[in-house]
Design brief:
This protein is α/β, with parallel strands linked by helices. The protein contains 14 helices and 15 strands. The N and C termini lie far apart (44 Å). The structure holds pyridoxal-5'-phosphate. Pyridoxal-5'-phosphate binds next to α4.
């Protein structure tokens, strides 16, 4: 089948977080947005068709997950990630991954406990720790030759000197660095956590976006020990561009923790999925694998184009080439300008919006994150404008 990822879908005026909030966020509503992580592609057709069919039935009352829902999730984890997950391990979070982590932090830790997060990090992963009155312990990733690595020595030291450390919020593949962790790294991480009795929540929302040459290894698939001492969060939301439908799935093998999670979800009455989220997930996980394969080829093309453009027109900007995700971590430090100044040039001169490095919880002055999941003509337009806006500074 042919897929037209070059097609520009007008998203302005659709209540889009990415396209319709730029005036309040950046002071201009005519920017090309490359900040928040959703894609500018139409969702796959089987997803739209399934929702249309459901829409035809005029009753939209409370919905319940059926057998097909469970088998769609376990089937996807098996076929795509070679992970055999039992149906009873699955738990859900209708709103999303972060809301699930918010509940889990309250189940797995007590106020004042330390929670480790590797930085730079997707900021809600930091806020969910501090916002719940837990102590945030940052294990900063170290960069080596444009590749971010886990600083294991720092991790051990930080855990050993923290006040009641009990939890690590892990991001795999990693946003914003784009790292797809190798088996050796995961095994070493798991050994460190196991030795110190640290439970792991592995946020694998970007698991389906992996570039050729790498493969994503679910943390819970490493070993029985890793499985029992972790919760893995996955979602069809990023993969099939359905984040507005709000859904997420958790793999919780420990029966007692799962029961406590389900009780908390029940108390908050968060156990019922959005009817369209449910329909979309089933279609996505069972009918759209080929669409995803084509999308990944297209995203690789976008990444190659960005890399070639930057090396030709913006040689002072360093591209941290991602191994997964559709997010590119760019280093503008060689320009010798502050982040605020670069941001001003990007917004006012180039008319584009990127995420500043400081959004990721650390002093990453001079770094920006760019979302490249958009039709290539749009990406090209954005890059051309960035090239022109910064030309006097190279
Ligand atoms: C690492 C990571 N976790 C979670 C989320 C958000 O997930 P949800 O919308 O399901 O809360 C994002 C979105 O960008 C993300 O990058």
């Amino acid at each position: 089948m042919e897929y037209d990822f070059d097609r520009i879908v007008e998203r302005r005026g659709t209540g889009s977080f990415k396209w319709d909030t730029n005036q309040e966020r950046f002071g201009r509503d005519d920017l090309i947005p490359f900040w928040v992580a959703d894609m500018d592609f139409a969702s796959p057709q089987p997803v739209t068709e399934a929702m249309k069919r459901r829409l035809e039935h005029p009753v939209y009352g409370y919905s319940a997950r059926d057998d097909d829902y469970f088998s769609a999730v376990t089937g996807w984890l098996s076929s795509r990630h070679n992970w055999q997950v039992k149906r009873e391990w699955l738990a859900f979070s209708p709103p999303g991954v972060i809301q699930a982590i918010h509940i889990l932090i309250n189940i797995l830790t007590r106020p004042g406990d330390s929670v480790v997060v590797q930085t730079p990090a997707y900021s809600p992963l930091l806020n969910v720790v501090t916002g719940n009155g837990r102590v945030l312990v940052k294990n900063s990733l170290k960069e080596s030759g444009g590749r971010y690595m886990i600083d294991f020595d720092d991790l051990e030291e930080k855990i050993d000197s923290a006040v009641s450390p009990s939890l690590l919020l892990f991001c795999s593949p990693h946003n914003p660095s784009g790292r797809v962790w190798d088996r050796e790294e995961l095994v070493r991480l798991s050994a460190i956590c196991s030795k110190r009795d640290i439970f792991v929540i592995s946020d694998e929302i970007h698991a389906d976006f992996v570039f050729p040459g790498k493969s994503h290894l679910p943390y819970g698939s490493l070993s029985d020990e890793a499985l029992q001492k972790s919760i893995t969060c996955i979602s069809a939301s990023k993969t099939f561009n359905i984040s507005g439908l709000q859904l997420a799935t958790l793999v919780i093998a420990d029966a007692e923790i799962r029961e406590r999670y389900e009780k908390a979800v029940d108390v908050a009455q968060l156990n019922l999925d959005n009817i369209f989220g449910e329909v979309a997930l089933k279609a996505a996980y069972t009918e759209c694998e080929e669409w995803l394969d084509h999308l990944l080829v297209y995203l690789k093309g976008n990444l190659d184009m960005l890399t070639a453009f930057i090396s030709e027109h913006l040689p002072a900007v360093k591209v941290n080439r991602p191994e997964g995700t559709y997010l590119v971590w760019l280093d503008f430090r060689a320009l010798g300008l502050s982040s605020a100044e670069i941001n001003r040039l990007l917004v006012e001169r180039a008319g584009v919006a990127l995420y500043e490095g400081r959004e990721f919880g650390e002093d990453r002055d001079g770094f920006f994150r760019m979302n490249i999941a958009c039709p290539r003509p749009l990406l090209k337009e954005g890059l051309t404008r960035i090239g022109e806006a910064l030309s006097g500074y190279l």
